[in-house]
Specification:
The chain is of the alpha+beta class. Among the domains are: 121 residues, no CATH class; 142 residues, Lipocalin, CATH 2.40.128. 14% of the residues lie in helices and 28% in strands. The strands form three sheets. It has a seven-stranded antiparallel β-sheet with strand order 3-2-1-7-4-5-6, with no helix packed on it. Strands 12, 13, 14, 15 and 16 form a five-stranded antiparallel β-sheet that branches. It is globular.
């Protein structure tokens, strides 16, 4: 049976409720509305983060340059110079980004992958950081790339075994000592332990583990975090990344990581390699360009060397002096053909060819200098590509001399590297002056060369002559 309908008066009040109860209910509703509005206002004024981080939050990508002397893989001394940090929107100076006081790029336990022409050649783990001539550098250890662990083959069944489904009972042999494991005094072995029996584990004390780092602080590829993730350990031996370790010489006791030998100045035997730190694993992208015809590479190199000699003022010698040419006119017999004159040599010449994006063609870089004292030397760097007719098209030509290096530094190619994590390579140059230097990233696209980023100047002493 349906219940009879209940009517209300013209003001919406229930006719069967007393007026006092209706007033009390109205006050409670009004108080709830006021409380809800105040709560919303409080949330609107809250300065912190209310929502969780999105899954699309960009992963930081740091670019650095490892410099060392000695053998590759086992350097006598080394240092890692931070260059840039890509935060998902722009390139930040790696020597300044999130410095507390050391920058994030040289924080302890950050791991870099060393690359040559886009191929991994080793790992470099930051142990601690320090300042050299006012700029932050990282010290650490060079480790080889981990090798793939071969899979252990599973058990092999004997196909010739009869009745493989028949169960086989094995009797446990008694202990040779004759003593009981359970302390009963008899020579019989104790029963095997029950696998379902609960096991008690001691709870670690507060001193056994340290608190994990701030989850809101962006991180680079962290060796300790990766190890903890692989072992499903919550602590993983975390240390506070914000705690600076600034020491000189060797540390004593357990006060912190040992300071490794430092590399000071710019020695002539110093070598360089690109270092990349990215928490996200990305596919390998080599930058090697493969010529369809190997003779084309020789042709391009010879053409670029001629452009470099012209920029440096190195004129090839004439085939014969003017006096010999005048005497040759009086001869009745033709002179024998002269061998081609030897071209002036380019000192410290480096020629590299890259494929900075799949199917982008060849990008060539040549750098050289003249011989002599530093004040009299001239330097040239060329970035070029082949044109449609197979000739050299120069995209950038940088010429300077030893007397104006502080105003116009020389360009020394380090390598190609993907600084923006967009699967396209940039050219990383060291801009070296007389008493300072910088690093710069250049992008080659559509027949143009653009400077994407440049670090601040660093004082590293006078370059050797």
């Amino acid at each position: 049976m349906l219940s009879p309908s209940v009517s209300h008066d013209s003001r919406g009040r229930h006719p069967e409720l007393p007026l006092r109860k209706q007033k009390n209910r109205s006050r409670r509703a009004f108080s709830a509305i006021v409380l809800g509005a105040a709560t919303l206002a409080a949330f609107g004024q809250y300065p912190g983060t209310v929502t969780k981080k999105s899954k699309d939050t960009p992963v930081l990508r740091a670019i650095a340059v490892l410099e060392w002397t000695g053998q590759e893989g086992k350097p006598n001394s080394s240092r890692l110079v931070p260059v840039s940090v890509f935060d998902g929107q722009a390139l930040q100076d790696g020597g300044l980004y999130l410095a507390r006081p050391q920058p994030l790029a040289v924080t302890s336990e950050v791991e870099y992958q060393l690359e040559k022409n886009g191929k991994p050649v080793g790992l470099f783990d930051i142990r601690n950081a320090g300042q050299e001539q006012g700029s932050w550098v990282g010290y650490g250890t060079w480790k080889p790339m981990p090798s793939a662990v071969p899979k252990t083959p599973g058990p092999v069944l004997d196909e010739g075994a009869d009745d493989s489904d028949r169960p086989t009972l094995h009797r446990k042999k008694p202990s040779s000592s004759g003593s009981s494991d359970s302390g009963t005094g008899s020579g019989e072995p104790s029963a095997p332990s029950d696998p379902d029996r609960p096991t008690l584990h001691k709870k670690p004390s507060a001193t056994d583990t340290e608190a994990p780092p701030d989850p809101d602080r962006p991180t680079l590829h962290n060796k300790a975090a990766a190890s903890a993730l692989a072992q499903n350990e919550p602590s993983g031996g975390y240390t506070d990344p914000d705690r600076p370790v600034l020491k000189r010489g060797k540390s004593s006791g357990n006060n912190g990581p040992e300071v490794l030998p430092t590399l000071m100045g710019l020695p002539q035997e110093m070598q360089q390699a690109v270092a990349v730190s990215d928490a996200r694993t990305r596919p390998e992208h080599p930058w090697t360009y493969t010529w369809a015809n190997p003779d084309d590479e020789i042709k391009m190199k010879v053409a670029m060397e001629a452009i470099a000699r012209d920029a440096l003022g190195l004129e090839p010698p004439s085939h014969a002096p003017a006096a010999n040419r005048a005497a040759a006119k009086t001869r009745t017999k033709p002179a024998p053909p002269q061998p081609p004159a030897e071209l002036p040599k380019l000192t410290d010449e480096h020629f590299r060819v890259f494929e900075l994006a799949y199917g982008s063609g060849a990008t060539m870089v040549l750098s050289a200098r003249t011989d002599g004292p530093l004040a009299n030397q001239k330097f040239v760097t060329l970035i070029a590509q082949p044109d449609l007719y197979g000739n050299v098209l120069v995209l950038l030509k940088h010429v300077t001399d030893g007397s104006q290096l502080d105003d116009s530094p020389r360009m020394r190619l380090v390598d190609a590297v993907d600084a923006l994590a967009d699967n396209r390579g940039e050219l990383l140059f060291e801009m070296r002056g007389t008493s300072q230097r910088q690093f710069a990233l250049y992008r080659v696209l559509r027949g143009h060369v653009d400077k994407l980023f440049e670090t601040g100047g660093s004082q590293y002493g006078v370059a050797p002559e």
